[in-house]
Structure to design on (106 residues):
């Protein structure tokens, strides 16, 4: 089972084993990770599940679709090259050890 690590702004980190097929957002909500609001429930229309993917792991992910790309322009914290909506990252075995940082605000 893939392990996903969520890093908070204070540097604290929590790692969870997550079944393949869930999104990074769904796993965060299920585990009670702070800072992932997910107001739209994973429909890529609110940008409240914004995360920063570890720069060394971005290439493991498919490129964002047009709707995700557009929503990333509306995040509360600045968009970066490694910004993604966690609802759009489906967990696969290849994403084992994925690390994401939760922004200061959503």
């Amino acid at each position: 089972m893939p392990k996903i690590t969520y890093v908070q702004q204070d540097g604290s980190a929590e790692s969870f084993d997550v079944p393949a097929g869930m999104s990074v957002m769904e796993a965060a909500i299920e585990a009670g990770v702070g800072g992932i609001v997910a107001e739209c429930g994973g429909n890529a229309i609110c940008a409240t599940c914004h995360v920063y993917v570890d720069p060394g792991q971005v290439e493991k992910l498919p490129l964002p679709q047009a709707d995700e790309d557009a929503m990333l322009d509306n995040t509360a914290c600045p968009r970066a090259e490694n910004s993604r909506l966690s609802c759009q990252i489906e967990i696969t075995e290849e994403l084992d050890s994925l690390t994401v940082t939760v922004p200061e605000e959503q």
User: Anything to note?
Assistant: The CA atoms of residues 8 and 102 lie 5 Å apart.
